[in-house]
Amino acid sequence: DTAVSQTPKYLVTQMGNDKSIKCEQNLGHDTMYWYKQDSKKFLKIMFSYNNKELIINETVPNRFSPKSPDKAHLNLHINSLELGDSAVYFCASSQEALQGSYGYTFGSGTRLTVV
Amino acid sequence: TQLLEQSPQFLSIQEGENLTVYCNSSSVFSSLQWYRQEPGEGPVLLVTVVTGGEVKKLKRLTFQFGDARKDSSLHITAAQPGDTGLYLCAGVTPGANNLFFGTGTRLTVIP
């Protein structure tokens, strides 16, 4: 059983299109996240979400929006895709815990290529 | 803003050698985690350290959290080809729950 699963694994699309990446976790975790990994392998937080609060990294364009139909899912919608959006996007989950004493479980990533 | 700087950025060593990776910051962290990422996969948690000065061992890997909780190190003894990967430190700042990642160290162990 995959703990955190993302689909699709690869996504190639044209500039201006709207696309979604799905994420599901079966760990019963309280909090889910989206990270973006650039070409230099730097991982940057985009969103964190639990059933109480959505925290958005202020540097994320509003073309990106997370949508959570339930506690086990956090999907990422991207409108009007741009070339600079090309990256690997990772979904992750963790138990809600102050001070980050619990580790994150990551999905295997979605490689988005905008052409 | 780059909160966590790792060094070296790249490291290529022979099987059986020892190595140390450093993770440094000017910020204090309430906890620090180390992950290993392999190509085409997400990062996988290796260890979490929460107390200043804490040392944890995971087989041939030794992790240390600095006394001031601003830095950490990962030491690998007798490296093996299976240790090859991208090593990432990640910290949680006090009062926050989000994990901020370091710049990464790409390790290659040559058989």
Give the arrangement of secondary structure elements:
The complex is a heterodimer of chains A (115) and B (111).
Chain A (H helix, E strand, L loop, with lengths): L3 E4 L2 E4 L5 E7 L5 E7 L5 E7 L4 E3 L7 E4 L7 E4 L8 E8 L10 E2 L3 E5 L1
Parallel strand pairs in A: 2-11
Antiparallel strand pairs in A: 1-3, 3-8, 4-5, 4-9, 5-6, 7-8, 9-10, 9-11
Chain B lengths: L4 E3 L2 E5 L4 E6 L6 E7 L6 E6 L5 E4 L2 E5 L5 E6 L8 E8 L7 E2 L3 E6 L1
Parallel strand pairs in B: 2-11
Antiparallel strand pairs in B: 1-3, 3-8, 4-5, 4-9, 6-7, 7-8, 9-10, 9-11
Q: How does this structure look, described?
A:
The complex is a heterodimer of chains A (115) and B (111). Chain A has one domain (4-98): Sandwich (Immunoglobulin-like), CATH 2.60.40.10. Chain A has no helices and 11 strands. Chain A has strands at residues 4-7, 10-13, 19-25, 31-37, 43-49, 54-56, 64-67, 75-78, 87-94, 105-106, 110-114. In chain A, the strands form 2 sheets. In chain A, strands 2, 4, 5, 6, 9, 10 and 11 form a 7-stranded mixed beta sheet that branches. In chain A, strands 1-3-8-7 form a 4-stranded antiparallel beta sheet, with no helix packed on it. Chain B is mainly β. In chain B, the strands form 2 sheets. In chain B, strands 2, 4, 5, 9, 10 and 11 form a 6-stranded mixed beta sheet that branches. Chain B is 0% helix and 52% strand. The model of chain B has no long low-confidence stretch (mean pLDDT 93). Classes of the chains: A mainly beta (115), B mainly beta (111).
Question: How many runs of DSSP E, i.e. beta strands of chain A?
Answer: 11
CATH topology of chain A: Immunoglobulin-like
Which stretches of chain A are poorly predicted, pLDDT < 50 over at least 5 residues? none
CATH class membership of chain B: Mainly Beta
Task: Quickly give the CATH architecture of chain A.
Answer: Sandwich
Structural class of the helices, strands and pairings of chain B? Answer: mainly beta
CATH topology name of chain B, in short, is: Immunoglobulin-like
Distance between the termini of chain B: 37 Å
Oligomer: heterodimer
How helical, in percent, are the residues of chain A?
under 10%
